[in-house]
Protein backbone atom coordinates (compact mmCIF):
# COMPACT_ATOMS: atom_id res chain seq x y z
CA UNK A 1 0.00 0.00 0.00
CA UNK A 2 1.38 3.39 -1.03
CA UNK A 3 0.74 5.76 1.86
CA UNK A 4 1.30 9.44 2.59
CA UNK A 5 1.82 10.99 6.01
CA UNK A 6 0.25 14.29 7.01
CA UNK A 7 2.39 15.80 9.76
CA UNK A 8 6.07 15.59 10.70
CA UNK A 9 6.02 15.57 14.50
CA UNK A 10 7.32 12.88 16.85
CA UNK A 11 4.30 10.62 16.30
CA UNK A 12 5.16 10.49 12.60
CA UNK A 13 8.67 9.41 13.58
CA UNK A 14 7.16 6.60 15.66
CA UNK A 15 4.98 5.64 12.70
CA UNK A 16 7.98 5.39 10.39
CA UNK A 17 9.89 3.29 12.92
CA UNK A 18 6.97 0.87 13.32
CA UNK A 19 6.29 0.84 9.58
CA UNK A 20 9.70 -0.67 8.86
CA UNK A 21 8.32 -3.99 10.14
CA UNK A 22 5.30 -3.91 7.78
CA UNK A 23 6.09 -5.62 4.49
CA UNK A 24 2.93 -4.31 2.81
CA UNK A 25 3.56 -0.67 3.67
CA UNK A 26 5.38 1.79 1.44
CA UNK A 27 5.49 5.43 2.54
CA UNK A 28 5.36 7.29 -0.76
CA UNK A 29 4.87 10.88 0.38
CA UNK A 30 4.80 13.33 3.27
CA UNK A 31 2.88 16.57 3.72
CA UNK A 32 3.95 19.51 5.84
CA UNK A 33 2.79 23.11 5.92
CA UNK A 34 6.32 24.11 4.87
CA UNK A 35 8.32 22.40 2.17
CA UNK A 36 11.45 22.82 4.30
CA UNK A 37 10.09 20.69 7.16
CA UNK A 38 8.54 18.22 4.79
CA UNK A 39 11.74 17.75 2.81
CA UNK A 40 13.78 17.31 6.00
CA UNK A 41 11.41 14.53 7.13
CA UNK A 42 11.39 12.95 3.67
CA UNK A 43 15.19 12.96 3.46
CA UNK A 44 15.45 11.46 6.94
CA UNK A 45 13.41 8.41 5.91
CA UNK A 46 14.05 8.19 2.18
CA UNK A 47 10.53 9.24 1.17
CA UNK A 48 10.18 10.10 -2.50
CA UNK A 49 7.47 12.76 -2.62
CA UNK A 50 6.97 15.87 -0.54
CA UNK A 51 3.95 18.20 -0.52
CA UNK A 52 3.02 21.50 1.09
CA UNK A 53 -0.38 21.49 -0.61
CA UNK A 54 -3.17 19.21 0.58
CA UNK A 55 -4.94 19.69 -2.74
CA UNK A 56 -1.93 18.32 -4.61
CA UNK A 57 -1.60 15.43 -2.18
CA UNK A 58 -5.28 14.56 -2.59
CA UNK A 59 -4.78 14.51 -6.37
CA UNK A 60 -1.69 12.28 -6.22
CA UNK A 61 -2.48 9.11 -8.17
CA UNK A 62 0.38 7.16 -6.62
CA UNK A 63 -1.02 7.54 -3.06
CA UNK A 64 -3.66 5.01 -1.97
CA UNK A 65 -3.92 5.89 1.71
CA UNK A 66 -3.10 8.65 4.16
CA UNK A 67 -2.01 8.65 7.78
CA UNK A 68 -3.28 11.84 9.45
CA UNK A 69 -1.04 12.95 12.33
CA UNK A 70 -2.00 16.61 12.56
CA UNK A 71 -3.60 18.35 15.59
CA UNK A 72 -7.03 17.00 16.58
CA UNK A 73 -8.91 20.03 15.28
CA UNK A 74 -7.67 19.31 11.74
CA UNK A 75 -8.45 15.58 11.70
CA UNK A 76 -11.97 15.74 10.30
CA UNK A 77 -11.32 18.34 7.59
CA UNK A 78 -8.12 16.72 6.32
CA UNK A 79 -9.51 13.20 6.52
CA UNK A 80 -12.68 14.11 4.62
CA UNK A 81 -10.59 15.81 1.94
CA UNK A 82 -8.54 12.62 1.46
CA UNK A 83 -11.57 10.33 1.67
CA UNK A 84 -13.33 12.37 -1.01
CA UNK A 85 -10.24 11.87 -3.15
CA UNK A 86 -10.73 8.11 -2.86
CA UNK A 87 -7.95 7.46 -0.35
CA UNK A 88 -8.17 5.28 2.76
CA UNK A 89 -7.45 7.16 5.99
CA UNK A 90 -5.76 6.06 9.19
CA UNK A 91 -6.30 8.96 11.61
CA UNK A 92 -4.48 9.54 14.88
CA UNK A 93 -6.37 9.64 18.15
CA UNK A 94 -8.55 11.32 19.03
CA UNK A 95 -10.00 10.64 15.60
CA UNK A 96 -12.17 13.77 15.66
CA UNK A 97 -13.08 16.70 17.90
CA UNK A 98 -16.55 15.28 18.55
CA UNK A 99 -19.08 12.68 17.44
CA UNK A 100 -20.59 14.97 14.78
CA UNK A 101 -17.23 15.28 13.00
CA UNK A 102 -16.66 11.52 13.08
CA UNK A 103 -20.06 10.84 11.54
CA UNK A 104 -19.19 13.21 8.66
CA UNK A 105 -15.94 11.30 8.19
CA UNK A 106 -17.78 7.98 8.14
CA UNK A 107 -20.27 9.33 5.57
CA UNK A 108 -17.40 10.44 3.32
CA UNK A 109 -15.73 7.04 3.61
CA UNK A 110 -18.92 5.17 2.73
CA UNK A 111 -19.72 7.46 -0.19
CA UNK A 112 -16.26 7.01 -1.69
CA UNK A 113 -15.96 3.25 -0.97
CA UNK A 114 -12.87 3.66 1.22
CA UNK A 115 -12.25 3.23 4.93
CA UNK A 116 -11.38 5.54 7.80
CA UNK A 117 -10.00 4.10 11.01
CA UNK A 118 -8.72 5.52 14.29
CA UNK A 119 -5.07 4.78 15.02
CA UNK A 120 -5.86 3.41 18.49
CA UNK A 121 -2.69 1.40 18.92
CA UNK A 122 -3.41 0.40 22.52
CA UNK A 123 -6.36 -1.88 21.64
CA UNK A 124 -4.93 -3.38 18.46
CA UNK A 125 -1.83 -5.02 19.89
CA UNK A 126 -1.21 -8.43 21.55
CA UNK A 127 -1.34 -6.88 25.02
CA UNK A 128 -4.98 -5.91 24.71
CA UNK A 129 -5.78 -9.27 23.13
CA UNK A 130 -4.24 -10.91 26.21
CA UNK A 131 -6.42 -8.77 28.48
CA UNK A 132 -9.59 -9.90 26.71
CA UNK A 133 -8.46 -13.53 26.56
CA UNK A 134 -7.75 -13.71 30.29
CA UNK A 135 -10.66 -11.61 31.52
CA UNK A 136 -12.97 -14.64 32.11
CA UNK A 137 -10.52 -15.88 34.76
CA UNK A 138 -11.66 -13.02 37.00
CA UNK A 139 -15.24 -14.25 37.21
CA UNK A 140 -18.03 -11.69 37.06
CA UNK A 141 -16.46 -8.27 36.44
CA UNK A 142 -17.47 -5.64 38.98
CA UNK A 143 -15.02 -2.75 38.80
CA UNK A 144 -12.22 -1.35 36.70
CA UNK A 145 -9.81 1.51 37.31
CA UNK A 146 -8.17 2.46 34.03
CA UNK A 147 -5.52 5.11 34.30
CA UNK A 148 -2.91 6.93 32.29
CA UNK A 149 -1.20 9.84 33.99
CA UNK A 150 1.93 11.20 32.33
CA UNK A 151 3.56 14.52 33.15
CA UNK A 152 3.98 16.24 29.79
CA UNK A 153 7.34 17.73 28.90
CA UNK A 154 5.34 20.53 27.32
CA UNK A 155 3.82 21.40 30.69
CA UNK A 156 7.09 22.94 31.86
CA UNK A 157 6.98 25.27 28.85
CA UNK A 158 3.30 25.97 29.58
CA UNK A 159 4.19 27.12 33.09
CA UNK A 160 6.79 29.43 31.56
CA UNK A 161 4.25 31.01 29.22
CA UNK A 162 5.04 28.96 26.10
CA UNK A 163 1.82 27.21 25.09
CA UNK A 164 2.35 24.43 22.56
CA UNK A 165 -0.30 22.54 20.60
CA UNK A 166 -0.92 19.88 23.25
CA UNK A 167 -2.21 22.55 25.64
CA UNK A 168 -4.33 24.51 23.16
CA UNK A 169 -8.09 23.90 23.50
CA UNK A 170 -8.66 25.70 20.19
CA UNK A 171 -6.95 22.71 18.56
CA UNK A 172 -9.31 20.29 20.35
CA UNK A 173 -6.46 19.27 22.61
CA UNK A 174 -6.06 18.80 26.34
CA UNK A 175 -5.73 16.00 28.84
CA UNK A 176 -8.93 14.16 27.92
CA UNK A 177 -8.35 14.23 24.16
CA UNK A 178 -4.62 13.46 24.32
CA UNK A 179 -4.34 11.10 27.30
CA UNK A 180 -7.81 10.26 28.56
CA UNK A 181 -8.78 8.77 25.23
CA UNK A 182 -6.36 5.91 26.00
CA UNK A 183 -8.59 5.12 28.98
CA UNK A 184 -11.97 5.69 27.33
CA UNK A 185 -11.39 3.54 24.24
CA UNK A 186 -10.30 0.37 26.11
CA UNK A 187 -13.30 0.79 28.40
CA UNK A 188 -15.85 0.84 25.57
CA UNK A 189 -14.08 -1.99 23.76
CA UNK A 190 -14.14 -4.17 26.87
CA UNK A 191 -17.55 -3.28 28.29
CA UNK A 192 -19.48 -1.33 25.64
CA UNK A 193 -21.03 2.10 25.95
CA UNK A 194 -21.83 2.96 29.59
CA UNK A 195 -25.34 3.78 30.73
CA UNK A 196 -24.23 6.96 32.45
CA UNK A 197 -21.07 8.87 33.32
CA UNK A 198 -19.99 11.48 35.84
CA UNK A 199 -16.99 13.61 34.90
CA UNK A 200 -14.83 16.12 36.71
CA UNK A 201 -11.63 17.85 35.68
CA UNK A 202 -9.11 20.56 36.52
CA UNK A 203 -8.64 23.37 34.02
CA UNK A 204 -5.48 25.40 33.61
CA UNK A 205 -5.40 29.17 33.14
CA UNK A 206 -6.15 29.09 29.40
CA UNK A 207 -9.17 26.80 29.79
CA UNK A 208 -7.44 23.57 28.75
CA UNK A 209 -8.02 20.56 30.99
CA UNK A 210 -4.88 19.39 32.74
CA UNK A 211 -6.35 16.26 34.32
CA UNK A 212 -9.65 14.60 35.03
CA UNK A 213 -11.66 11.66 36.30
CA UNK A 214 -14.64 9.94 34.71
CA UNK A 215 -16.82 7.41 36.54
CA UNK A 216 -18.89 5.22 34.21
CA UNK A 217 -21.78 3.04 35.32
CA UNK A 218 -22.96 -0.12 33.57
CA UNK A 219 -26.31 -0.72 35.23
CA UNK A 220 -27.28 -4.09 33.70
CA UNK A 221 -23.77 -5.52 33.95
CA UNK A 222 -23.29 -4.28 37.50
CA UNK A 223 -19.94 -2.65 36.69
CA UNK A 224 -18.36 0.62 37.76
CA UNK A 225 -15.38 1.94 35.78
CA UNK A 226 -13.17 4.77 36.95
CA UNK A 227 -10.99 6.53 34.37
CA UNK A 228 -8.07 8.60 35.71
CA UNK A 229 -5.94 10.65 33.33
CA UNK A 230 -3.51 13.56 33.56
CA UNK A 231 -0.93 15.56 31.62
CA UNK A 232 0.31 17.42 34.71
CA UNK A 233 1.11 14.54 37.07
CA UNK A 234 2.62 11.06 36.89
CA UNK A 235 1.22 7.84 38.33
CA UNK A 236 3.04 4.62 39.14
CA UNK A 237 -0.16 2.64 39.71
CA UNK A 238 -1.31 0.05 37.16
CA UNK A 239 -4.71 -0.25 35.58
CA UNK A 240 -6.84 -2.71 37.55
CA UNK A 241 -9.84 -4.83 36.61
CA UNK A 242 -11.66 -6.48 39.53
CA UNK A 243 -13.83 -9.58 39.25
CA UNK A 244 -15.52 -11.70 41.87
CA UNK A 245 -12.81 -14.38 41.52
CA UNK A 246 -9.72 -12.23 41.10
CA UNK A 247 -8.09 -9.00 40.03
CA UNK A 248 -6.01 -8.20 36.94
CA UNK A 249 -3.19 -5.64 37.09
CA UNK A 250 -2.12 -4.12 33.77
CA UNK A 251 1.06 -2.12 33.39
CA UNK A 252 0.75 0.70 30.84
CA UNK A 253 -2.76 0.38 29.40
CA UNK A 254 -1.57 2.14 26.23
CA UNK A 255 1.08 -0.54 25.63
CA UNK A 256 0.25 -3.51 27.84
CA UNK A 257 3.24 -5.81 28.11
CA UNK A 258 2.71 -7.61 31.39
CA UNK A 259 -0.46 -8.71 33.16
CA UNK A 260 -0.73 -10.03 36.71
CA UNK A 261 -3.80 -11.91 37.91
CA UNK A 262 -4.25 -12.07 41.68
CA UNK A 263 -6.82 -14.73 42.56
CA UNK A 264 -8.94 -14.72 45.71
CA UNK A 265 -7.14 -17.84 46.96
CA UNK A 266 -3.85 -15.83 46.92
CA UNK A 267 -2.49 -17.45 43.76
CA UNK A 268 -0.75 -15.12 41.31
CA UNK A 269 -0.41 -15.62 37.58
CA UNK A 270 2.08 -13.59 35.53
CA UNK A 271 1.38 -13.19 31.81
CA UNK A 272 4.13 -11.79 29.59
CA UNK A 273 3.16 -10.42 26.18
CA UNK A 274 5.62 -10.71 23.31
CA UNK A 275 5.71 -7.86 20.80
CA UNK A 276 7.74 -7.05 17.73
CA UNK A 277 8.93 -3.86 19.42
CA UNK A 278 8.09 -3.58 23.14
CA UNK A 279 8.58 0.20 23.03
CA UNK A 280 6.50 0.95 19.93
CA UNK A 281 3.24 -0.91 19.32
CA UNK A 282 2.10 1.11 16.30
CA UNK A 283 2.99 -1.82 14.04
CA UNK A 284 -0.28 -3.57 14.86
CA UNK A 285 -2.52 -0.63 13.97
CA UNK A 286 -0.75 -0.30 10.62
CA UNK A 287 -1.17 -4.00 9.87
CA UNK A 288 -4.85 -3.94 10.85
CA UNK A 289 -5.48 -0.84 8.74
CA UNK A 290 -3.90 -2.37 5.65
CA UNK A 291 -5.81 -5.61 6.19
CA UNK A 292 -9.12 -3.78 6.64
CA UNK A 293 -8.55 -1.71 3.51
CA UNK A 294 -7.26 -4.44 1.21
CA UNK A 295 -9.29 -7.45 2.35
CA UNK A 296 -12.66 -5.74 2.12
CA UNK A 297 -13.49 -6.45 5.77
CA UNK A 298 -13.68 -2.72 6.40
CA UNK A 299 -13.45 -0.88 9.71
CA UNK A 300 -17.06 -0.83 10.93
CA UNK A 301 -16.30 -2.58 14.21
CA UNK A 302 -13.40 -0.24 14.94
CA UNK A 303 -15.55 2.76 14.02
CA UNK A 304 -18.28 1.71 16.45
CA UNK A 305 -15.81 1.83 19.32
CA UNK A 306 -14.60 5.24 18.15
CA UNK A 307 -18.19 6.51 18.10
CA UNK A 308 -18.79 5.29 21.65
CA UNK A 309 -15.46 6.82 22.69
CA UNK A 310 -16.45 10.24 21.38
CA UNK A 311 -19.96 10.00 22.82
CA UNK A 312 -18.41 9.44 26.26
CA UNK A 313 -15.89 12.24 25.80
CA UNK A 314 -18.48 14.67 24.42
CA UNK A 315 -20.64 14.14 27.51
CA UNK A 316 -17.61 14.36 29.81
CA UNK A 317 -16.61 17.67 28.23
CA UNK A 318 -20.18 18.94 28.54
CA UNK A 319 -20.15 18.20 32.26
CA UNK A 320 -16.72 19.82 32.68
CA UNK A 321 -17.59 22.87 30.59
CA UNK A 322 -14.93 22.22 27.96
CA UNK A 323 -16.05 23.61 24.60
CA UNK A 324 -13.96 23.49 21.44
CA UNK A 325 -14.40 25.81 18.45
CA UNK A 326 -15.24 22.65 16.49
CA UNK A 327 -18.31 22.14 18.69
CA UNK A 328 -19.79 25.42 17.50
CA UNK A 329 -19.55 24.65 13.78
Oligomeric assembly? single chain
Strand order of the largest sheet: 8-9-10-7-11-12-13-14
Strand and helix order: EHEHEHEHEHEHEHHEEEEEEEHH
Task: Say how many strands there are.
Answer: 14
Low confidence ranges: none
Mean pLDDT: 97
The fraction of residues assigned to DSSP E strands is: 25-35%
Question: Largest beta sheet, briefly?
Answer: 8 strands, mixed
Number of helical elements: 10
User: What is the helix content?
Assistant: 25-40%
> Using only CA atoms, what is the Rg?
20 Å
Q: Give the termini distance in whole angstroms.
A: 34 Å
The geometry reads as globular
Structural class: alpha/beta
If you had to describe this structure to a student in words, what would you say it looks like?
The protein has 329 residues and is α/β, with parallel strands linked by helices. Helix content is 37%, strand content 25%. It has 10 helices and 14 strands. It has helices at 10-19, 35-45, 54-59, 72-84, 99-111, 126-134, 153-159, 175-191, 282-295, 300-320; strands at 2-6, 26-31, 49-51, 65-68, 88-92, 116-119, 141-149, 196-203, 209-218, 223-230, 239-243, 246-250, 258-263, 268-272. The protein has an 8-stranded mixed beta sheet with strand order 8-9-10-7-11-12-13-14, with helices on one face. Strands 3-2-1-4-5-6 form a 6-stranded parallel beta sheet, sandwiched between helices. α4 (72-84) packs parallel to α5 (99-111) and α5 runs antiparallel to α10. The radius of gyration is 20 Å and the shape is globular. The two termini are 34 Å apart. The mean pLDDT is 97.
Amino acid sequence: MNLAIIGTNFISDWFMTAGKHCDKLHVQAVYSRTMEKGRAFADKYGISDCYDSLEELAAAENVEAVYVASPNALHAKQSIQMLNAGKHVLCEKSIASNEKELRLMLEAAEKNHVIVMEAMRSVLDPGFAAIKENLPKLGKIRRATIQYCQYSSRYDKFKNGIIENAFKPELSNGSLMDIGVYCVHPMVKLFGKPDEITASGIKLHNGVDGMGTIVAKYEKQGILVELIYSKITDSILPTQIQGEEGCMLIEEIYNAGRLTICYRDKRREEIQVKKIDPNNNMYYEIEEFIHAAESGTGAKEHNQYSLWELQVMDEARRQMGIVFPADKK
